Amino acid sequence: MTRQPLNLLDHLHQTILQFLNPFTASLSQARQAHAQILKTGLSSDTNLTTKLLSLYANNLCFDDANFVLDSISEPNLFSYSTLIHAFAKLNQFGHALGLFSQMLSRGLVPDSFLFPSVVKACAGLPASKAGKQVHAIASVSGLASDSFVQSSLVHMYIKCDQIRDARKLFDRVPQRDVIICSALISGYSRRGYVDEAMQLLSEMRGMCLEPNVVLWNGMIAGFNQSKLYADTVAVLQKMHSEGFQPDGSSISSALPAVGHLEDLGMGIQIHGYVVKQGLGSDKCVVSALIDMYGKCACSFETSQVFHEMDQMDVGACNALVTGLSRNGLVDNALKVFRQFKDQGMELNIVSWTSIIASCSQNGKDMEALELFREMQVEGVEPNSVTIPCLLPACGNIAALMHGKAAHCFSLRRGISNDVYVGSSLIDMYAKCGKIRLSRLCFDEMPTRNLVCWNAVMADMQCMERLMKLWSQKGLTDEGWYYFNSMSREHGLEARVEHYACMVTLLSRSGKLEEAYSMIKQMPFEPDACVWGALLSSCRVHSNVTLGKYVAKKLFNLEPKNPGNYILLSNIYASKGMWSEVDKVRDKMKSLGLRKNPGCSWIEVKNKVHMLLAGDKAHPQMNQIIEKLNELSSEMKKLGYFPNTHFVLQDVEEQDKEQILCGHSEKLAVVFEGREISVRDTNLFHHFKDGVCSCEDYW
DNA sequence: ATAGGGTTAG
Asked: Where are the PPR repeats (predicted)?
């Protein structure tokens, strides 16, 4: 009679065990089994509870896992190990460490199997203090000589940016294996220590150790990450020449470097290898190939590789979009993006960010804003990469409200501290004429890299344009202060764009000679930005002699930029040298260059309106013109006459008046009673209460 | 239980 219930229990036990099969069980089965266990009082069965723990952990059900752990009267090392291993594997490092400390406080002693997972958790966070403590505990437990523990510790120190501790530990290991060497070599590679990595690789020979594929791949990925592109490719070649077959992982880590180097020959060779080895079905390899051809300016091959794919892949689609826009084919990029979407392709955050970046980098700012909205409608959340791709579009068209919305989003999502987000905010606010907000963003950035110095230097340029401090030494001094402190206090080398900013600051305040001598002393060839800055100051200060000289330099550097011709002709015009003006205009005509039409944008009720000079395309154009005429006659009644002196063209007075009234700025001003930002060929004007921030200087 | 885990967006 006593056997019957035991059999029943046995049967139940078997059923629950089946439900808890780690390979087949679903979360709901785990919950059912859990309920059964509780009902039948099987909680003391360690076999069952451990399986349950592992299932909950693998499904990231922290609360359930903790509940089970608490219900075990005497949780042992095995219970904790199960959970910690699972969490470490699933990148739930905080949970893993929390359980580890709980386990220690219960007086349980970890074994050599548990330590690697715990150390991995410290590496993953990374948490260097905890890592050191765990190291100490391992030493006290006498387990620090275990090779698994040692390898994981080396990895942890590298992740915590403590290369010297990693090396110290490595040096004390008597019996080194491939794995611990691989950990250190990959660490060196990721931090850009090429010599140390290569040295250790050759030392392995002396230890009778052969590198394996994982080691090679770690080196390739590491060098690529350190932007040491030539070294990346060199390692791939070395690997191959030493008789190792690069796998998909090797190829997809090396291809970005080939692209950066624009080494098409190497790219084609690798493509051949991919085909030969049958790696063509590897999605990462294919995407990387498409990207490589895109970077090497081979639009045809980019599309070809894409179309030869046997299976659609979102990564490859993204690479194609970027590849097309990189080669001046934005419209094609937009077209294929639309096709992908219409085909029901699962577009991810990279897809949306790519197309937004393509637009904002190619003068399609309104489209970028629209796509950003569309993306959110589709339920895709922007991230810290999306924002810096979008913000230039806001800045370009002074879409302040959109920019502010992106700023608020960044604050809510806790990504405003990201150095790229911060830099693009600085830039966006400066371009919208919001200097104080721009500076606020700069001051609040916790870390500053080259990108944000670029932004703040550009910001200085805007300030110089927008403030009244033209000739006072204050702003120039501030510029010098930033310029010098960049290298002195932050160890960043001034680059050509920083020189361009200083040239602007100096030349705008009238120190044209000082600016020119700075250009001559630059440690590298001055580019078009530098000369352009000087030329536009020559225009401000009507300096014909220097202007003529600078323009010549610019015509050589960028013969197709109409802006330079316009500037020079304006310099002549400001001195009434109309025959010289005609010469420049004739030159432009013979080169087939045309002045880009003036363009204004205005945000009304969160919608951006674009107004092109001389363009009648705006749907409300009739009302706008009516209102303009109304304003004009009202202004004239109050004693205002269009100042035709500012029309730098040798035309009849009446035409000048016409030209002035057709200005896109005027068109935007019709939306009166608001803050208005307008941009001419080289700066933004910010109107508030009818007063322009440039104080009518321009 | 230890090293790499790759591609496409700034």
From this structure: 76-110, 177-211, 212-246, 313-347, 348-382
Q: How many angstroms separate the CA atoms of A533 and A514, rounded?
A: 13
pLDDT in tens, A323-345: 999 999 999 999 999 999 999 99
A634 and A587 housed in the same domain? no
CATH number of the domain encompassing residue A478: 1.25.40
State residue A557's pLDDT score.
82
- For the CA of A318 and the C1' of B7, the distance in angstroms is 10
Residues A571 and A640 in one domain: no
Q: Give distance CA A184 / C1' B9 (Å).
A: 31
Q: Contact A546/A511 with Cβ under 8 angstroms? A: no
Q: Give A60-63's long-range contacts (Cβ < 8 A, gap of 24+).
A: A60/A90, A60/A92, A61/A27, A62/A92, A62/A95
- Which nucleotide is closest to the Cα of A349 by its C1'? B9
Residue type present at position A12 = L
Same domain, A589 and A674: no
Considering only residues A332 and A477, tell me which one the structure prediction assigns the higher pLDDT: A332
Nucleotide closest to residue A220 (CA–C1'): B4
pTM: 0.78
A204 plus A118 within the same structural domain:
yes
Å: A327 CA to B10 C1': 18
- At A544 the pLDDT is 82
Smallest CA–C1' separation from A253, nucleotide: B6
Sheet holding A676-679, edge to edge: A676-679, A684-688, A691-692
Domain of residue A517: give its range.
468-595
Residue A215 near residue A176, CB atoms below 8 Å: no
Residue A580 belongs to a domain: yes
Does some domain include residue A507? yes
Chain A residues 242-261 within 7 Å (CB) of strand B: 247-249, 251-253, 255-256, 259
Residue with CA nearest to B7's C1' atom: A284
Domain shared by A327 and A216, yes or no: yes
**Same domain as A641, residue A576:** no
Whole-number Å distance, CA A59 to C1' B9?
Answer: 30
Q: Which of residues 301-320 of A touch strand B (CB under 7 A)?
A: 313-316, 318-319
Closest CA to the C1' of B5: that residue is A249
Task: Count the residues in chain A.
Answer: 698
Examine the domain organization and report whether A225 and A312 are in the same domain: yes
Nearest nucleotide to A419 (CA to C1') is B10
Indicate if A562 and A636 belong to the same structural domain: no
Instruction: Spell out the residues 6+ positions from residue A678 whose beta carbon is closer than 8 angstroms to its own.
Output: A398, A600, A664, A665, A668, A669, A684, A685, A687
Q: Nucleic chain B: which protein residues 55-114 of A have CB below 7 A from it?
A: 85, 112-113
